[in-house]
Amino acid sequence: MMRFLLLFSRQGKLRLQKWFTPMSEREKKKIIRDMTTMVLSRQPRSCNFLHWKDLKIIYKRYASLYFCLAIENQENELLALEVIHRYVELLDKYFGNVCELDIIFNFEKAYFILDEFLMGGEIQETSKQIVNRCIESSDMLQEDDSSEWYEVELFG
Amino acid sequence: MPAPIRLRELIRTIRTARTQAEEREMIQKECAAIRSSFREEDNTYRCRNVAKLLYMHMLGYPAHFGQLECLKLIASQKFTDKRIGYLGAMLLLDERQDVHLLMTNCIKNDLNHSTQYVQGLALCTLGCMGSSEMCRDLAGEVEKLLKTSNSYLRKKAALCAVHVIRKVPELMEMFLPATKNLLSEKNHGVLHTSVVLLTEMCERSPDMLAHFRKNEKLVPQLVRILKNLIMSGYSPEHDVSGISDPFLQVRILRLLRILGKSDDDSSEAMNDILAQVATNTETSKNVGNAILYETVLTIMDIKSESGLRVLAINILGRFLLNNDKNIRYVALTSLLKTVQTDHNAVQRHRSTIVDCLKDLDVSIKRRAMELSFALVNGNNIRGMMKELLYFLDSCDPEFKADCASGVFLAAEKYAPSKRWHIDTIMRVLTTAGSYVRDDSVPNLIQLITNSVEMHAYTVQRLYKALLDDISQQPLVQVASWCIGEYGDLLVSGQCEEEEPIQVTEDEVLDVLEGLLVSNLSTPVTRGYSLTAIMKLSTRFSSVNRIKKVVSIYGSSIDVELQQRAVEYNALFKKYDHMRPALLERMPIMEKTATNGPTEIVQTNGETEPSVVEPKHPPPVTQPANQANDLLDLLGGNDVVPVIQTTLPTKPASAGGELLDLLGDLSLSGIPPMIAYNKNGLKIDFTFERANPNPNIAVITIHASNTTEADMTDFVFQAAVPKTFQLQLLSPSSNVVPALNQGTVTQVIRVLNPQKQQLRMRIKLTYTHKGSPVQDLAEVNNFPPQSWQ
User: Where is the AP complex mu/sigma subunit domain (chain A) (predicted)?
Assistant: First the structure.
């Protein structure tokens, strides 16, 4: 399973944190510090895999954001790269040419998308279209809140 | 009260802060506003406030006062509220807070909500952070949803079930009926999560695994699904660079791996599909390689036929030539795993692997180095060693120690000749001498001693190396030792292997004295050179010069040197007749197992001499495997039954239980005692007389731990005065569990023929909360009955 996913900028500012196992605030802060230090100090053309404690850390940089995914030892690293890429694609489709600012100002949407793609440290949905449709429908439901329509089943 | 500012506005404002202090001030102001808003129980803006709180939490500020508000949001009817509420719960709450249990009822209601997106939120939250209690309470609801025809909910329920099983493994059984027709779904999301669920069940329970193999015929089903994925044409919904749903493919391959492991029938059933995937998958992009990688791992783990295995290794060999670093890295890691079982197949790729030593990437270099060492054998030792020594010359310092140890180990196992062996060692010492491990020095000395015919050559090469460079301590130490031993061969120019050099006794002594005064020499090195100089007094004729040097160091500030010099002086003055015998050539030492960088020699039961201070008499201990010898010496007594301590899994009141145990155990009427009690570690001694020999006291130590963290790598050592003999049997374990949840026991047998008062010194080493701890103590409070 995946253990955690972190997004941070080149200056080490955290933009998203998803933890798939329970951990204390202190542990989380320490892990964030360790990850940002380790990943930001890597040479530009190194391989994207690191070892940290008993986990494999997969990281990839997209523009100004680093995506850092921790997986257990028996997981497939090359596939983890695809997982990160898929999440970026989902964000890109939703925001239209996504950039760091989109994720800063709409962090809750980034989480909602993530929660339709991954769950409990595993992949939940492998189809891009289905994830996008679910998010759109949920957004519609939010709008309907203000117009007092609650029970709208859209796109099944 | 004005409406609280919107989330966007807050983010924008905070981002304008130019210093950390300014940001903190803004945050504090906003938090205060949010707190008052919460106090007013304002439903309209609660959602907005919690969202702002989550943003500030991400920046690293405390947000715990929003936890209850999240619960209120979850309980709201509005979808917007629920969305933010559940998100807040996932970010701010976890099972450590009691508050989280209040969610259970909300989640239960939402699992039955009429809107699937609300049900989805509930499932997601439960599946991400549900505690064991919550999982127990709601497992039934999850199981119900696992059987629904709504694929959106079904896939979420499947992953939720996975989480429930991880938290409460006993509940696995209840999900079994629902798994029956999961794989006949067309929806990929459901298929994927179902495979994850089945994998989790098979990994956790061998019974489940057997059930799925035989009764459910899982393998043919999975093979069919995989085949469809590969053979089916372009599917826009699942396509990734020309491959249909790689995520599902990889997951199926992984489940096949588990099903096929150690099972001939299953392995045979999947043979064809594995070969098909291995040969047909497109390798131009990372996706294809990810699938190939998983396929290789599966082939290697199941009982595949040899043709398939060779195919797998060849795939890895092709990976090694790939431009993509990640793929090269993954190939090296996999080859490392298979090199033991498929050694010959991996050997075929040796040259490619050795080329990877020159890769620029640090992770790849390390893997290549480990794999190279694994591939060294008697046939390729010369060629491989050349490459590895070249690597040692040019690699980063972080590799040098491991590489040097690896070279020594390989050289020892496969050296084609003694001369080659010495040359290799010399090369390592001269190029990476300061990175060589400390234990290499005695190992090398032993090796050199045993290569009798090479002594002259060795000492000559070492002497020449010293002339060049005296900064690398291991080199200098080995060299001094050799010169001390074989200096006579050096000056007499007896070397056969190469051109003997002309060197006088004075030149040699100059070099050794130079080591003594040089700032580059460590105290240990100085000790070596002083002793070497002394040894030359029986090999050289210039004894007076040596006497002078030795007497000078009699007043050295370094205590170790001073002691040596004083004793050597005494040797000259009062015990000159003994000197030749004492400084004789070293005999050939017995070969003991070399400790490689990864081997750890367990010496449980032996006390290291360094534990005891020089003044006290050396301890006499017997390792556990000599138990029988000891008993034979004492007249072949039957072993007294080892006193069993239970390792209770229930916590607390263990203190009371320990006392009960001790109560039961004073069979011999000798009262138990507390031998050590410090930093949460308590060691009790209980006694028994060994029948029928009354001179042996059998002591059982009970180690218990009152702190909240386990003490791991726990080692107990003991030493007794000269008149006693001690035998330490194996301990029950080397982890002392926290909070008195169990004890480690170990039996000591003390032979006390002279019926002297029993005294003992104990040394305790363990790891606590990640740091090593060591302590020495003296035990003097033995009850008189134990030794009288």
Answer: 1-139
- Partner A contacted by B66 (CB < 8 A): no
Rounded to 5 degrees, what are φ and ψ at B665?
Answer: -90, -5
Give burial (CB, 10 Å; 0-12/13-18/19+) of A149: exposed
Rounded-to-integer distance, Cα A105 and Cα B55, Å: 9
Measured CA to CA, the distance from residue B338 to residue B335 in angstroms comes to 5
Q: b/e per residue, B627-666, with b = 16+ CB within 10 A? A: beebbeebeeeeebeebebeebeeeeebeebbeebbeebe
* Chain A touched by B565 (CB under 8 Å): no
Q: Kindly report the length of chain A.
A: 156
Q: Please name the residue that has the structure tokens 């009288």.
A: B788
Q: What is the pTM of this model?
A: 0.70
The Cα B661–Cα B658 span in angstroms is: 5
Take residue B537 and report the two structure tokens written for it: 């007094």
- Edge to edge, the sheet with strand A55-62 lists A14-19, A2-9, A65-72, A55-62, A49-52
Question: Are residues B508 and B536 in contact, defined by beta-carbon separation less than 8 angstroms?
Answer: yes
**For B264-298, how does the pLDDT look when each residue is reduced to its tens digit (9 = 90+)?**
999 999 999 999 999 999 888 999 999 999 999 99
Provide the Cα torsion B72, B75, B79, B85; round to 10°.
Answer: 40
Using the Cβ of B198 and the Cβ atoms of chain A, whether some distance falls under 8 Å is answered with no
Residue B603: the pLDDT is: 36
Give the nearest chain B residue to A106 (CA atoms).
Answer: B8
DSSP readout, B183-215? Answer: GG---HHHHHHHHHHHHHHHHH-HHHHHHHHHT
CA atoms of B46 and B8, how far apart (whole Å):
15
- For A49, the enclosing helix (H) or strand (E) is strand A49-52
Contact A108 B8 (CB under 8 A): no
Which pLDDT score is estimated for B177?
92
CA-nearest of B333, B408, B318 to B368 is B333
Mean pLDDT by runs of 10 across the 788 residues of chain B is 85 93 94 92 89 93 91 92 94 81 91 94 94 93 94 96 96 93 91 96 94 88 93 87 94 95 91 94 92 95 90 92 92 89 87 90 88 91 92 87 90 88 88 83 85 86 88 89 89 80 87 89 91 90 88 89 90 85 80 46 36 36 39 38 35 39 49 87 83 76 88 88 82 87 87 82 88 88 80
Residue B670 CB coordination number (10 Å): 21
- What is residue B557's DSSP assignment? S
Cβ-proximal residues to A120 (8 Å cutoff; 6+ apart), any chain: A1, A20, B127, B128, B159, B160, B162, B163
Residue B294 in contact with partner chain A when CB distance is under 8 A? yes
Question: Per the CB < 8 Å rule, is A150 touching B247?
Answer: no
What whole-number distance in Å separates Cα of residue B685 and Cα of residue B672? 6
B 264-293 → A contacts, CB under 8 A: 286-287, 289-290, 293
3-class state of residue B404 by DSSP? helix
Ordered structural domains, chain A, with CATH: 2-155 (3.30.450.60)
Alpha helix (H) residue ranges in B583-731 = 627-633, 654-665
Residues whose CB is less than 8 angstroms from the CB of residue B492 and which lie 6 or more positions away in sequence, other chains included: none
Does residue B518 contact residue B470 with C-beta atoms inside 8 Å? yes
Instruction: Look at strands B621-622 and A65-72 and give their pairing.
Output: unpaired
Q: Does B105 touch chain A (CB under 8 A)?
A: no
Per CB-CB distance under 8 Å, the chain B contacts of A150 are 77, 79, 115
- Taking each helix axis from N to C terminus, what angle separates B116-129 and B132-146, rounded to the nearest 10 degrees? 140
